[in-house]
Amino acid sequence: MYRTKTCGELRLSNVNETVTLAGWVQRVRDIGHLVFIDLRDRYGITQLSLNADSNAALCDLARKLGREFVIQVTGKVVERTSKNTNIATGEIEIYADTLTILNESETPPFTIENESDGGEELRMKYRYLDIRRPLLKDVLVTRATMIRAMREYLDNKGFIEIETPNLIKSTPEGARDFLVPSRLHNGSFYALPQSPQILKQLLMVAGMDRYYQVVKCYRDEDFRGDRQPEFTQLDCEMSFVEQNDIFENFEGMVKHVFRKTNGVELPDFLRLTFADAMRLYGSDKPDLRFDCKIIELNDSLPQSEFPVFNNTLASGGLVAALNAKGCAAYTRKQLDELTDFVKATHRGLSGLVNIRFNADGTVKSSVDKFYTEEQLREIGKACGAERGDMILIAAEKVSKVRKSLGDLRLELAKRQNWIAPGSWSVFWVVDFPLFEKDEESGEINFVHHPFCSPHPEDLQYFDSDPLRVRAQTYDMVMNGSEILSGSIRIHQRDLQNRVFAKLGLTEEEIDHKFGFMLNAFKYGAPPHGGCAFGLDRWVMLMTGGETIRDSMAFPKASNGKDLMMDAPAVVDPKQLVELGIAVVNKD
Amino acid sequence: MYRTKTCGELRLSNVNETVTLAGWVQRVRDIGHLVFIDLRDRYGITQLSLNADSNAALCDLARKLGREFVIQVTGKVVERTSKNTNIATGEIEIYADTLTILNESETPPFTIENESDGGEELRMKYRYLDIRRPLLKDVLVTRATMIRAMREYLDNKGFIEIETPNLIKSTPEGARDFLVPSRLHNGSFYALPQSPQILKQLLMVAGMDRYYQVVKCYRDEDFRGDRQPEFTQLDCEMSFVEQNDIFENFEGMVKHVFRKTNGVELPDFLRLTFADAMRLYGSDKPDLRFDCKIIELNDSLPQSEFPVFNNTLASGGLVAALNAKGCAAYTRKQLDELTDFVKATHRGLSGLVNIRFNADGTVKSSVDKFYTEEQLREIGKACGAERGDMILIAAEKVSKVRKSLGDLRLELAKRQNWIAPGSWSVFWVVDFPLFEKDEESGEINFVHHPFCSPHPEDLQYFDSDPLRVRAQTYDMVMNGSEILSGSIRIHQRDLQNRVFAKLGLTEEEIDHKFGFMLNAFKYGAPPHGGCAFGLDRWVMLMTGGETIRDSMAFPKASNGKDLMMDAPAVVDPKQLVELGIAVVNKD
Prior knowledge:
By secondary structure, chain A is an alpha+beta fold.
């Protein structure tokens, strides 16, 4: 070893020991007769002290050190006169006797500090320098800690980690597959798995009973928003279980991971139905770190001539409100911003009605013309408004109102700082519908995937009213992000065939894509169910990142490129000849 | 849960408990007034007992059960009158009160037993049934146990598990890359990693200090022998280390894994130089579960007119022997078989000389004409021959003699049962050469990979005599198989460039393939080194498998096909259009 100790472990109790450290030069301060070096490694920073009086040559060498030089130092641990309480090693320093330069460094393209001067693109190109920043290094350490805690919990519960193959058959569902041309079987392709869904179900057919895997998955999607072409799932499956068994097991696991990672004790998880989530929060992944429910007013609106509300009610729409606590004093400009927010194309409201319950007891509204003060107070009461609150009301088609108010409550939370830093909201959303209708094509689609089991009690509607059938499907929502999705699976061949048929697959398609799975179901498939965690997102939430890029060592940029390696890239034409493929210019 | 207990856990202490089990019907025995069912799950087998007198309907149902039906049973645990000491649950049985069929099964295409009647191809097609066989199921459980022990050890030593990307840049070295066409960047390709070698080195540059990953790797090789297109490595890297640190750390890990998996305490590992391994065993991965060294006779051959030996010595070749202990009585047929064995094209000997030291004290030899009995006894003495032994002597070019006798000692061990069942031999081979010369092209090639550091003391020969330079490279050999390969890496940009140049890469090639890595070396790369374990092979050795296929859940057949999923396969032409590629017929 080039060292006897790391840069993070020396304390007062080590005083007088002679130690050897190795690491990177964070900075050099030359104050004439003394030179100080901050030496950094993964574990921390230790101050080295060199005395020009006693060792002039060493000081001369130290003065030549640049940032990020790799050095090795031997010396005695001494107590510092001016202690630094900000770092764990701040009570000691090393009186260096020898110093060896192990490697030099050019000046890095950005500063290796949490508040770096490098933009994101530059830092992704030099990711190996970006990871030296404690912020990102700590994310990778936390990620490993979290995964370790997951394994610990699952291992103790009798789960077996089993690796499934990554060169599989293309059965695109929802997203596009990445394909891998086969050299030995000209014209044939492997696909990279979008998830090990079918394989883990086959492991249940195989009797493995409890399976998990931390596994890379691949989706060839257009890069918008927070997506990566390869991402990591914690993938799990259990046999002989019902929904409740899954809930208990994985709620326990998430609590264990929190305990081991950040010491937070999570309370028991709420189980919110999909219907309630949509009705109360306008989202299937609401953020419950603050309250602010959607209040439906269809049945409690006072009589009035206000045409917007009356027309909405007449056409079967929804009139609903949010109580914007403490927002009565919003300015015209702020109100306009909220109106613009809900008018955005993807929300589609035409506007918002507001009723302000001012601190002085007066009431003001944008519909004063149509409602008496008493009627406004009546609406306020239905919404639980107090002095200082503002009620915001939307009236439109049900789905638009819910979507818009769901987004608006998040926007208000941001503006009003309703979310306490360090607070957590983790719960289940249950009873998703099995199918949904594509509004444009009118086609019936699955909501999760085609292997989710219908609720036994809703099977009676399967043919007559398929959209009414709930699935045994569930999500786990953390701080407003979906971090888990799962279901009890179909284990009966006949039922699986009925679902495929309902989705419009022909017998030929079913056989080509899923024949091997349906075949497996002939030989004693047990009842089973499971789930998959979006690991990158969970890590992001635990480490305060803003995109899942922030939770990976070597992410792709938003155009799918690895800026560090410059991948994808043009390859040697000989490689394509061997593979029996040619590039076709798409332009 | 569909069960309160598993089929593997009930004991005498559970007698009188009412339990619910679920699992697969292993077999049904109907003896008239009683029906017995062996119920199987991952954890074991439990006997169910149904009484026709007390519950005729239940017995009727049970008689209809076929093999591999999935059932759920509730009943009372009772002590068996005739106990089965072969299974852990053999002291009890369940008096079944209720029985529910959870799923039916067609008759499986082969028997679900360790000694199955299904051939390998059939079992791979129905891998989900193959895995129900306890033998294969136990392999997967052992594999998980081993990996858990590895992680446990490495986590305790401060290693961080970090996931590296699988969609990277193609930098083929040695083997062919699998390519993944990019849809968004027409004409560009990702490659699947042959190993995370460069990425883990960049993690060291990034200061992560100690890294590991259980990771899939991909090589598009022709399928011969024991190869899989995707396989698993335990990949590791450490900073600020020398070879000895790596040896100590991973020797400790292997011992830990043995302790946790099969309870074996391995002795400290020998460190055998590559030169000694070749000289003494004719192989860089010798099996040391038995002795039988190669004995070089060039300096100790008695004077004789035997032209084969004399010509060999004159031309700088090698005369060397094996002492085939206890083989003096080999028949002519057996001797011919050994001669044919060493004459195989890839070994290339022209024959073997034998000297038999018979049990009765006489000596016989195939070269009686050229040597006196005294001379033969002299050779025998040099080889440590005793009564009953046979000395086999080869004379040829050094490399042929070593290769042939190395193979021959393995062949003798097999024939003579020299390897005790359950014995282990695990050790290091060190000091590999850095380069080797391709015998045909005369080109200089790397022995391991181009990132291995030369021995500092041999750097002086780098230009004058490159083949003399030893690398800081090492393998771990287990029972005659290489299960680990590693090295101290080059961390100096200049030296790395010199190695690339020595391998014949142009500056342009170096820049295109490795530019990002050499760039990283500008910014303070620490001294580092590491290794990678071939996990599939290690699991195979621990579980007594014959090919690495036997240690994976879903392996490919020898033609690279997944027989269960039927992959690779022809894909929808629309997918190729989207990817901007076309199939070119190779015939």
